[in-house]
Write a structure and sequence with these properties.
single chain, 311 residues, mainly alpha, 2 domains, 13 helices, 78% helix
Length: 311
């Protein structure tokens, strides 16, 4: 199955140094510690010359291993799997933190998410069986889907929050007021300001309608994701030794992936949440803030125009 770049990870992973990864493995570290200890013991009665022999032997062994181990497909797969798990865990922790800041721990979606995690743990046990066609990469893809579930949930929450922030009842009278002012406005500069303010306020009304449809689509995508995930799990559990299981699971996971349009919209909405807090504080103001600023500026211009008319 083709390598999947997780939709909630926006930075490109650095290419690992497999040689460094080999030197960080427990056998390599314990070998180095053992060589140092044995060298120190031998150097007491026999001097530094003989004490350096264990270190030379370790260095020679590490040099020979470095010619074969870093290029081994099995070793590389193990390193890559660990790095994917680390990145997946970091994104999961970040999404969980953002969600807990918005919803109660007893929210119904947490039960769905926890059940999905339990299913993944169960499938990991199945994948370790020698008789099954299910492999660890299949299980990783399903684990990615649990992170997708959190990401979609957070995206839906942020969309609904923004939908509620846009006060349609307050915007419509404001637009009507600007349109009345445009009829008596004589200054081209002031008209330009008012037209810009009206355009931004009307764009906010359109944005509110768009947010409702997008948030509804993401809510539906969450339910579909959880349902298809459960379907895959039940298929594996019913017949874990089927010859076509691996291919069937891969096909089912591909079908479970969401439409590209939803992915792109969710990425745009979650982008600020995946930044650090400091970066978020430096982010540009929202469309609502910009529209309010334009309307206030237009109001000041209208006031100056009226004063000039009275004068």
């Amino acid at each position: 199955m083709a390598e999947r770049e997780h939709r909630w990870i926006h930075d490109e992973p650095e290419e690992p140094s497999y040689l460094v990864e080999m030197l960080k493995t427990p056998p390599s570290k314990f070998g180095a510690i053992g060589a140092l200890g044995l060298g120190a013991i031998l150097s007491i009665p026999f001097g530094l010359g003989l004490g350096a022999v264990p270190l030379v032997v370790y260095a020679a062994g590490a040099a020979i291993a470095s010619m074969f181990v870093p290029g081994s497909p099995a070793f590389r797969d193990k390193v890559d799997a660990r790095r994917r798990a680390e990145r997946r865990g970091a994104v999961r922790a970040h999404l969980t933190e953002e969600l807990l800041a918005r919803v109660d721990v007893h929210a119904p979606h947490w039960s769905t998410y926890n059940r999905m995690r339990e299913r993944v743990a169960s499938l990991e046990s199945v994948a370790r069986s020698a008789s099954t066609r299910l492999n660890q990469r299949n299980v990783e893809s399903l684990d990615d889907s649990t992170v997708d579930f959190l990401g979609l949930w957070l995206a839906a929450l942020t969309m609904w929050e923004r939908w509620e922030e846009i006060d349609e009842d307050a915007l419509k009278p404001r637009i009507a007021e600007i349109e009345d002012s445009l009829e008596e406005m004589t200054s081209d500069v002031d008209r330009k300001h008012l037209l810009k303010a009206r355009a931004e306020l009307m764009a906010l009304l359109d944005r509110k309608k768009s947010l409702w449809s997008r948030a509804t689509a993401v809510d539906t995508a969450m339910m579909t994701l959880a349902d298809q995930f459960e379907e895959i799990y039940q298929r594996v559990i019913r017949n874990p030794n089927a010859n076509s299981l691996g291919e069937d699971v891969r096909s089912a996971i591909d079908r479970m992936r969401l439409e590209e349009e939803i992915d792109l919209e969710v990425d745009a909405d979650l982008g600020p949440l995946l930044l650090s807090r400091r970066e978020r504080e430096r982010a540009e103001p929202s469309g609502l803030d910009r529209a309010r600023a334009s309307a206030e500026k237009a109001g000041r211009s209208r006031g100056r125009s009226r004063r000039r008319t009275r004068e």
